[in-house]
Structure formats: structure tokens, C-alpha cells
Amino acid sequence: MLSMLIRRKGRRTHTDDRNLALVLATTAGILNAMALGAFGIFPSHMSGNTSQLSSEVSNTDLSDVLFLAAMIGAFVIGSVTSRLIAISGLKNNIRTIYSIILLLEGILLVFISLFETYYYSYGNSHEIIIFLGFLMGVHNSTSTQLSSGRVRSTHITGTLTDIGIAFASVLASLLRRDPSKQVKVQRSQLITHLVTLSSFLIGGIAGLLLFKQFGFNSMVAVGIFLVLVAIGSITLTIMISRRRMMRLHFL
User: Fold this and answer.
1) CATH of domain 2-250
2) Where are the membrane-spanning stretches (predicted)?
3) 69-110: per-residue pLDDT in tens?
């Protein structure tokens, strides 16, 4: 399962993508719901935030417009940051680069959650939400790059669209009674999208319950979980590489 974070030279399997969806879409749903419980806003709901920004432009309160614009900008900057780090890592042949990105995200999440645990104030809530938007941008960009767009951990609108397309393709093949070679691919992709959707929904329910019970400590736990997954993936990759080197040495 930890191999899901490693960019393969060959084609990724649907199992890799589903494991990726289980981890990243679930944690995205958890963090999204926790942010709603804490601040009353979704840090990854860019469609809604952009629509709200459009409506707020006509209002006289400039601070709300700037806040929403900052949230959207932070999400984009997070996505750009993830991509630039990935490009640098792949250029230098660092196979664990996506694990490193997830590790950095988990560490930042732990720090910001600890800060909120001990120093929570309504006065700094906007800054925290913007920073969470940045982390959500990193999160979604990482899963999108790893899966070549098949798993978008926070972009549920796109996932629902992909589900509709994949389902229609499978249905059309069945109605033709002349299934093409692509039917199995579409069916497998449909299952992957459904795993992503259900993971995000389950994560959202769990996130609200956990935040109500444990507050910001539960957000710390999510950050620690991401750190452990990333470290496990890096460790596994190093072990496999060493074994291969030893085999080549003895040959």
C-alpha cells in the first residue's frame, strides 16, 4: 500500500490509485470537515468559494472579498508549490519525491494544529484558514500528479463528472452488446472514482465527529498520520533499492 506514493516507470495500477484515494481523499475529507467545524468554512471548496467571491464583489465589505481571494490564491499557490517540488525531484531522479511532499505537508499541518490547540483566537482564524487552503492545494496537486489526474483528493465536482463519464461509457458498451477493449479500463476507472468519492464522504463524517470530540488535537493526529505514511513509503523504497543493489552486487 505504501508504494502508492512512488512514481513508477511503468503504468500505475488501479490498486495504487485506489490506495492513494483511500489515504488522501479520506484525509482531505477529514480536514475539510474539521475546518468547517472550527471555522465554518471549507478550505478546499474552491467552486463554492469562487462563486461566493463573485457575489461578494457587489458588497461594500472589501475584507470578505480579499479573504476569499486569498483563500483561492493560497490553494493555487499550494498546487504550484507541489508541482515545482515534484518537477525538481523527478529531474534529480528522487523516486520518493511525492512522499517527501506529503511528509512536509504533514509536518506543517502538525505545527499549525498545535498552534491552534494552544493559541486559538478568532482574530487569527482567517490566516489559519488561508494556510489550510494552501495545504489543500498541495494535497490535491500531489494526488493528481501521482495518478495522472485519475485521483483528485479534494476536487469532488470533477470526480462526480468523471464518475458520470465512466458510467456512461460502461453502460453504452453493455447496451451495444459489443464491449470494446476499453470497457474493462472504464469499469476499473469507475470503481477508482467511486472509492475516491466514498473516501471523501466518509472522511467528512469522521472529521466532524472527531473535531467535536477532540478539537484541534484531532487535526494534529491527521498530520501525524500523513507524516507516518510518508516516512513508511520512504523507508520501504530505500529498503527495496538496497535489496536490488545487493542482488546486483552478488550477480
Assistant:
1) 1.20.1250
2) 20-45, 65-85, 97-115, 156-175, 190-210, 216-240
3) 888 899 999 999 999 999 999 999 888 999 999 999 999 999
